[in-house]
Amino acid sequence: MSNTTTRGIVLMLCANLAFCIMACLVRHLSGCSTWITTLFRFLMGIGIISIVAMSGRTRLHFVNNRGLFLRGLVGGTATAIFFFSISRIGLVRAGFIASLYPAFATCFGVAFLGERLSIRKVAALGGALAGVVVLMYNPSVTGGLMHNLNRYDLLAVCGAMLAGLAVVSIKKLQATDSTVAIFFAQCLVGSLMVFIPASFTVTVMAPRSLMVLLAIGILATIGQLLLTDSYRYLTLSTGSILVMTTPVFNCIAGVLFFHEPMSIQSGVGALVILGSSSGLLMDKG
After folding, report:
1. What is the tens place of the pLDDT at every residue in 94-122?
2. Which of 113, 140, 158, 228 has minimal CB crowding within 10 Å?
3. pLDDT beyond 80 at 31
4. Does the model's pTM come out above 0.90?
5. How far is residue 74 from each of residues 98, 166, 168, 187, 258, measured CA to CA in Å?
């Protein structure tokens, strides 16, 4: 395994951890308006990148304006849907459904970027997706998984599809624009998208809640920058499968901190995801 690949893996796993902590905070503020939470997430990103740019440590230069706008539109919508899903169906379930996005990203990558998949990677992706299905399956309910899907589940699936498309756009934009420019564009377009609905749900908030909102924005910024940068060193399919360890982190956090249910099937699914990702690390293709 090359040093660049190792660096990409480390960056991706750190991004996953940051996103997990962020999701926990979103779950903690489930009573707060999703629009406000999403708006804070984007505004903090704009603020942090602007401060870094003004300090001279980075330079905001936009090349592919159309691509940046579309990335912001798709990524902003996916973020809003994910936050909303957490507040409606819980951290564990929302995280599991959202983790389907690597499958969409891989398919879009083959279609739009011409990436090839080795047999080993196809098997690993299939195993990881199977693990997600096992995690979501509830044998105690008649009809199983599909019977339990409600409108919020389906909305979360749509969010996963948009997130997969956003990842493809990140990979494509890496050829023309910097990591900070790509992320700044997402935050700018996303904030414009949610500003109006958020303005209709503004309420007086306790100082502690405001601090949590700020932390959500900071963690989201750190996670997104690490995620975006990791794709400089990883293929889309490799990065997509590694990201599927995120639902495992979310599952552990949901059970420990929010007492969400964790069945034997969920544990098996988590092991399948980890096993599939570990198999990928040994693939040099």
Report:
1. 888 887 787 788 778 888 877 777 787 78
2. 140
3. no
4. no
5. 14, 6, 11, 11, 30
Q: Token pair 């579309």 is at which residue?
A: 70
Which of 239, 273, 223, 173 has the alpha carbon at shortest distance from 5? Answer: 239
How is residue 179 written in tokens?
């990591």
Q: Which of 282, 74, 276 is nearest to 190 (CA)?
A: 74
pLDDT at 189: 94
Q: Which among 238, 252, 244 has a CA at the least distance from the CA of 283?
A: 238
- Amino acid identity of residue 150, one-letter, is N
Question: How sure is the predictor about 144, in pLDDT bands with cuts at 50, 70 and 90?
Answer: low
**Taking the domains of the chain in order of start, what are their residue ranges?**
3-281
Cβ neighbors of 28 (< 8 A, separation 6 or more) are 212
d(CA 283, CA 285): 5
Reported residue count of the chain is: 285
